Amino acid sequence: xxxxxxxxxxxxxxxxxxxxxxxxxxxxxxxxxxxxxxxxxxxxxxxxxxxxxxxxxxxxxxxxxxxxxxxxxxxxxxxxxxxxxxxxxxxxxxxxxxxxxxxxxxxxxxxxxxxxxxxxxxxxxxxxxxxxxxxxxxxxxxxxxxxxxxxxxxxxxxxxxxxxxxxxxxxxxxxxxxxxxxxxxxxxxxxxxxxxxxxxxxxxxxxxxxxxxxxxxxxxxxxxxxxxxxxxxxxxxxxxxxxxxxxxxxxxxxxxxxxxxxxxxxxxxx
Length: 270
Fold this sequence. Notes:
The chain has one helix and twelve strands. By secondary structure, the chain is mostly beta strands. It has a twelve-stranded antiparallel beta barrel.
């Protein structure tokens, strides 16, 4: 009964926004094959013509797929280059939609999301290095989120996502656990075009501008052609995985440390 009352148009067009996962899951038996890229700085000291506005640099690359096991439950796996101290990441994720926004009934949608990352980079021989993996568990990072979203009108949606990220090994004086808050929005322009925005704010004394850390912030254009979804964005985040960009965003928009990124997504039935 509840499913029949769900909104005909989803709150977000995609299961991901820019850096963040959205509240949406794959509907039905679908496979989403996804390729993403983050280039180097567009302008500033590290960008400009000398790097062809960052296009000659690859800060992060994502290749992976998500599988919809039911209309409310999906699993995913991808590989990212990684831009923090832990690189060559295999990321596995689970997302389950707990409730769905419905007309004259449920005011919001709510999903539980978790992602586990394992670094496959070679272990260092230096005991002081973060990639001196004394145990396999030191290669692992976890993030858990509760994602709440609402479509206020046919053209405007917002999302909020409290998160907890845990790293089994950290640098000196850093903390293993980080609480953060994700925010996102989508503004519909036409039937196929939308403006998307997302941000993640970590709450940690160590993650301050004095220590060279900043909230991640992105703005992008989303194009939905039916079977394909294209996204072009600008973001100060170098990384594409929550376990990477939440703890390790060290670029600052006000210092012109932002970059072009894109994502291509293709849906298949199975």
